[in-house]
Design brief:
This protein has 411 residues and is an alpha/beta fold. It folds into 4 domains: 14-110, Nucleic acid-binding proteins (OB fold (Dihydrolipoamide Acetyltransferase, E2P), Beta Barrel), CATH 2.40.50.140; 131-270, Rossmann fold; 272-331; 362-402, no CATH class. 42% of the residues lie in helices and 21% in strands. It is built from 12 helices and 13 strands. The strands form 3 sheets. It has a 5-stranded mixed β-barrel with strand order 1-2-3-5-4. The protein has a 5-stranded parallel sheet with strand order 7-6-8-9-10. A 3-stranded antiparallel sheet has the order 11-12-13, with no helix packed on it. Helix 7 (249-253) links the parallel strand 9 (237-241) and strand 10 (256-258). The mean pLDDT is 84.
Length: 411
């Protein structure tokens, strides 16, 4: 026979709300603080600022919530797929009858939260080109006005000024006070950088510096606002943050990185002693070069001066004058000889002309007859007619006659 059915005691019957309340009390009593490791999935952050996600491993999953005030203190960005370690308390959520972990502290598994946040932020800003070497500017060689963003009471400014004044004088330094550690430090550093960019006359170089410290101490120089302010500065910027092993995102964004505040001073101004040594070296090299060149040209000048044309300048003139006299004599003799030859030729030609000249014929008793008013010589009587007037030319003088009659040879 089946066992008799037991009737519940009305006083022991619990409502769902009552049972949930008891379970909630048991959880809060037995798990006030617990560390849980797992992978984040189903991550969301609505406008309320609260973070909701699920922690899971290969065998189970657990809902988790992080309230807004806790999430605001996180240095890293949460997303699906990262493994984290959370500290919190278990809580029962009555409306759904499910329990969840209320997270009070969260850090990445195997890596500190700051290291992970630094890596994430560096990758993000590098993708935007804020650390590109192409945008780096050269520092001026001889700055006259230097701005320094740092704590006015820290050791960094003392070291910076001490080294700078030891190396170079006559530089105006403007300090823009800012906290370099703790809450509000990033905002003050950004304000100092922006104020330096507004100063007139303009600042030649801007230095952002502080002494060394832990990653937490230097965290303000990893803040995105500080990095963007340095990248946006119109003034060439040098960072001198921490010690040699400390590297911040501000160092990567600056035009020049110095390992320490003291090195920042060494990078920003030249060394007067080194510059004087360089000037003396250049002076020596210049003097040597000028002496060598002067000696070279002196030797060339001596060689030129030793030439006869310069050592005895009139001798060449005398030689040319003597040569000119000889040529003049030769020219005179040649011209006289040529003149005699030409005169003899002319006389010979004149004699020949004289022999052939009609005037010469007249000299031997002959005469020339022309019709009056004509120049053509009459060689035949047959061309004449009675009554024509004739002109007869003798060696001396001429006569005019009239043809009376013409006698022909056959008459």
């Amino acid at each position: 026979m089946p066992p008799a059915r037991q009737q519940p005691d009305p006083n022991e019957i619990l409502s769902v709300t009552q049972l949930s309340a008891r379970l909630k009390g048991v959880m809060e009593e037995n798990f006030p603080s617990v560390w849980v490791a797992g992978e984040i999935s189903n991550y969301s952050q609505p406008q309320s600022g609260h973070c909701y996600f699920t922690l899971k491993d290969d065998g189970a999953q657990l809902r988790a919530v992080m309230w807004r005030n806790t999430a605001a203190r996180l240095k890293l960005a949460l997303h699906d797929g990262i493994e984290v370690v959370c500290r919190g308390r278990l809580d029962l959520y009555p409306p759904r009858g499910s329990y969840q972990l209320v997270v009070d502290e969260l850090q990445p598994k195997g890596m500190g939260a700051l290291e992970l946040a630094l890596r994430q932020r560096r990758d993000k800003l590098a993708a935007e080109g804020l650390f590109d070497s192409a945008r780096k500017r050269r520092l001026p060689t001889f700055p006259r006005r230097i701005g320094v963003v740092t704590s006015p009471t820290g050791a960094a400014i003392r070291d910076f000024l001490q080294v700078m004044h030891r190396r170079w004088r006559g530089v105006e330094v403007l300090v823009f006070p800012a906290r370099v550690q703790g809450d509000g430090a990033a905002e003050e550093i950004v304000a100092g950088i922006r104020a330096a960019n507004k100063v007139q006359p303009k600042i030649d170089v801007l230095v952002v510096t502080r002494g060394g410290g832990s990653l937490e101490d230097l965290w303000c120089f990893n803040e995105e606002a500080v990095v963007r302010a340095i990248a946006a500065s119109k003034i060439p910027t040098i960072s001198g943050i921490g010690h040699e092993i400390d590297v911040t995102l501000a160092d990567l964004a600056a035009d020049v990185r110095a390992l320490t505040p003291s090195e920042a001073a060494e990078r920003v101004v030249p060394s007067a002693a080194d510059l004087n040594d360089a000037i003396r070296s250049l002076e020596h090299r210049l003097r040597t070069a000028l002496t060598t060149r002067a000696t070279h040209y002196r030797h060339r000048l001596d060689a030129i001066a030793s030439r006869p044309s310069l050592s005895r300048p009139l001798e060449a003139i005398h030689l040319r004058g003597r040569r000119l006299d000889e040529l003049a004599l030769r020219l005179r003799a040649a011209s006289q000889t040529l003149l005699r030859d030409r005169r003899g030729a002319v006389e010979t030609m004149a004699a020949k002309l004289e022999t052939l000249s009609p005037l010469g014929v007249l000299g031997r008793g002959y005469s020339l007859t022309f019709r009056e008013g004509e120049s053509k010589l009459i060689t035949s009587a047959e061309k004449l007619k009675p009554g024509q007037r004739l002109v007869t030319r003798f060696q001396q003088g001429a006569v005019v006659s009239v043809v009376d009659h013409v006698e022909r040879e056959n008459d």
